[in-house]
Task: structure prediction
Amino acid sequence: MTAGNSDRKHRRTSRATGRVTLDQVARHAGVSPITASRALRGLASVAPDLVDRVRQAADALGYVANPAARALASQQSQNVVVLVPSLGNQLFIDMLEAIHAVMQPHGLEVLIGNHHYDRDEEEKLLRNYLSYQPRGLLLTGFDRTESTRRLVEASGVPCVYMMDLDPGAGLHCVGFSQVRAGETAARHLLQRGRKRLAYVGAQLDQRTLLRGEGYRRALQQAGCYDPSLEVLTARASSVGLGGELFGQLLANHPDVDAIFFGNDDLAQGALLEALRNGIRVPEQVAVLGFNDLPSSQFMVPRLSSIRTPRKAIGMQAAERLLDLIHGRMVDAPMLDLGFELMVRESS
Amino acid sequence: MTAGNSDRKHRRTSRATGRVTLDQVARHAGVSPITASRALRGLASVAPDLVDRVRQAADALGYVANPAARALASQQSQNVVVLVPSLGNQLFIDMLEAIHAVMQPHGLEVLIGNHHYDRDEEEKLLRNYLSYQPRGLLLTGFDRTESTRRLVEASGVPCVYMMDLDPGAGLHCVGFSQVRAGETAARHLLQRGRKRLAYVGAQLDQRTLLRGEGYRRALQQAGCYDPSLEVLTARASSVGLGGELFGQLLANHPDVDAIFFGNDDLAQGALLEALRNGIRVPEQVAVLGFNDLPSSQFMVPRLSSIRTPRKAIGMQAAERLLDLIHGRMVDAPMLDLGFELMVRESS
DNA sequence: CTGAAAGCGCTTACAG
DNA sequence: CTGAAAGCGCTTACAG
Result:
């Protein structure tokens, strides 16, 4: 009786949400649902005029596809999962933003997981996210549990690793050599004529360790390596911690004349602590940071640091993942984006 | 013929993924799929021994529910959408972490959207996320387009607003009064005997503006308001910008004796710039920040600031949203978590 | 407390 | 180039 309601078909038990469906768009355009589906997805093999009609119908009705239905039917989601060890480090925020910028135009939703530098948490996160049948995976570094590795492998989901370069050189990765960055840092300080060099790292994540390894290697080569000048702590990296460790180091080893910090926040804390205690940088002790955070160049004195291409890493890793998802050929699995030594006032 | 494969039913065209389904769990446990579903979801009305059998079957087979199928059948996802204006500000990272910590144990997936302080981008994000049929919405502040507002309203999805308090007092919100925080800042500086007070804010987001309003109000009341001492810029807040604006302000108004910054990064930049130019803080000019970022207490001199409860805001907003989702009564729509003036060396 | 049937809104696989 | 049928893997609504 009620006009306008008569075209409702198979809606017996009425579990419908009221939102516009593909069926309604198809009816509005006068085509079958499957044609509407193909037209909206931009599949070839649909007559151009039909595509137009369907598009207009969709616009007119304000149709937005139901991602759950799409995922269920096609057995694949529009999700891409990114796992990072921390959100407190600007480094990873920059990477995430870049990834987002690349994925968004492709209609891919970025699911962000933060595992807080915890291998078990990473495994749990991955297990959960895999149930979403993601199109791709973006993981940070290579330090993870064996079963996480198997999980990734068994899933068959394309995966790109960020930040580090795969020592085995078999996995798709975009980053730079952490070891060489550490070496470069040490060499720079040695060239400045420093003899008593220290390395201070927090978090004890693999990249911090690798940087330390490069650093050690360079010092051993120069014949001035002293293991007691390596200060590593599992505590989280922060400005406060940097100041604290700086104070302790100088108290225990007054002859230290250069310090390389595993992250800029630590180095910034050291600079502030030096300022507070009248320790002259770089005259008495040179300070070198890592990552070159935006604020580092404004420190007093301006912090020397190693600039890492985290934005480029996020972008390129995302592009690379897109290639893998779409089955495009990738020439080499490894993409080394390098790093840049920024010499300013503190070293 | 092949044993073990004979129980495959209605798998004619074989679109199955190979992953373990509810059907298999049910068969393994010797119950119907629907009973298995109910058992796994912890619905009452299932015999305890059946629940056990189903749970064991699920464990044995490594069953993980397909979120897409669940969402499609139940017409609701396990997603909660959070929209923040920025990820560059530690403030929002802390909020997000807290939200995550609350939602995770409830099996709710947090989808994060960053609208970069752009109202149109927020609207676009929301429109997209709404297609996911989220269980709840967590939005930042009250400054948005009219159609975004209508979108939220029309969706019927429970929503809690963070950071600000609703001027209309009708919406669910968890935060503190930005205006009162600005007033508190100004009063503190006035009590210190300062007369020529400036306000420096970046980003021009509503909260920065509201803080400025409170500040202005207090100054007018004290009879020392000077509009030329209000420096507002749409540029993004950063340490570098803080130093720059500090320098300009003192060049144009050498008699300024106190500055309130809309965010700590600006204030930190000012402190560093002062240090570099031999301007004594707080003797010549007092500096007060906002948010009390972790590094602020280590600045030289230690930065006074207004500590904002962003972790608590995230937590309480998430809890509140959980209440709304589960239809629990909420006593008052507004939750004022306040703020705390941290007086250190710079003021 | 348990289950057979139907349906959620899409896409795949098969025909024409 | 287009479509009717079936199915993705769950849950709702209805019976018993």
Remarks:
- The first strand of chain A starts at residue 79 and ends at 84.
- The CA atoms of residues 123 and 257 of chain A lie 42 Å apart.
- Residues 10-13, 15-17, 19, 21-23, 33-34, 37-38, 41, 65-66, 68-75 of chain A lie near DNA strand C (CB under 10 Å from a C1').
- The first helix of chain A runs from residue 22 to 29.
